[in-house]
């Protein structure tokens, strides 16, 4: 008799969730363990929180998340080894305060990846190695981050090589957002194909899945999963939520009626969207090796602060009291 979300999906894929250390106690931990069998650190394993100064690592939060996973026999996904956001300033500067050389930066990236991946070897089964390297502007290919400015394209392959050397068993992912949109999908595909052709140790692609009641369509989602898996890569949904607001600024500006109220109409549209995307997930269970939600319930979601600070959002399957929403029942009823 299924009990929590994960139980309905036990023959499909692990059901994961992004957590903060404070989620791992009392009723929140109970709720988590009832519904999920995989966890990811929402922030604790990013470079800035973990490695704020040269030769200094802050392990407590990351360790508490890994230990919780290990102690309860659930999977732990690592996030993220190389990202342009939440990367500490010192990483990109030399001893004189000038921009670091390529050699220096790659040496630091290697040290960081070796230290972190080896510490959790055998405990973290999959890593987001490179996060969000494709530019938002469709006319460009890679994002003009400090990683790119200093190293050119090389930092991407290097990051995967370092991670593979540090833990040859870990599944290594490239992770990005808006990947189901055709123009970005094509550029992500181009990058992944290059890496695969060059025999870089990459094993999967993470589609973040910061979606909304307006996107993606069933066809777009299906096409993206098929196109990426045709490269022989695993596909995971790594940061799932379904915003009740449209993502684009232009469209947002035309909606002055947005007031943070979760109307019956919005609930229905969100329920339909969740039903649709989970149908596609189930149809692709051979290549889809994990689905991770970005936060536990509507009580706390990063979308309350982004892109509009203080506008309440309701993007998850559980409400502010941790009770299953209409969308939950639709997702488990198949
Ligand atoms: O911990 C500090 C705190 O000490 C400080 O006082 C406070 C003041 O701003 O900031 C706190 O850090 C914040 C951190 O979340 C923890 O709450 C950062 O400012 C804030 O920028 C950070 O936001 C996170 C964001 O990534 C940037 O790292 C979100 O929680 C997190 O949900 C979000 O997750 C990302 C994925 O990693 C990658 N894909 C997109 C996704 C959503 O943006």
How many DSSP-defined strands? 9
User: How is the biggest beta sheet arranged?
Assistant: 8 strands, parallel, barrel
Order of helices and strands: HEHEHHEHEHHEHEEHEHHEH
Radius of gyration: 20 Å
What molecules are bound to this protein? ligand G3I
C-alpha geometry: globular
Q: Determine the number of helices (DSSP H or I, runs of at least 4 residues).
A: 12
Q: How far apart lie the N and C ends?
A: 15 Å
Strand order of the largest sheet: 1-2-3-4-5-6-8-9
What is the mean predicted local confidence, pLDDT? 96
Give the uncertain stretches in residue-range form.
none
Family: Belongs to the glycosyl hydrolase 10 (cellulase F) family.
EC number: 3.2.1.8
Enzyme class: hydrolase
Domain GH10: 1-334
Spell out the blueprint of helices and strands:
Blueprint: H1 5-8, E1 15-19, H2 26-35, E2 38-41, H3 47-50, H4 60-71, E3 75-83, H5 102-119, E4 126-131, H6 146-151, H7 154-166, E5 171-176, H8 182-197, E6 204-207, E7 210-212, H9 218-229, E8 234-243, H10 249-253, H11 264-283, E9 288-293, H12 326-332
Parallel strand pairs: 1-2, 1-9, 2-3, 3-4, 4-5, 5-6, 6-8, 7-8, 8-9
The structure holds ligand G3I.
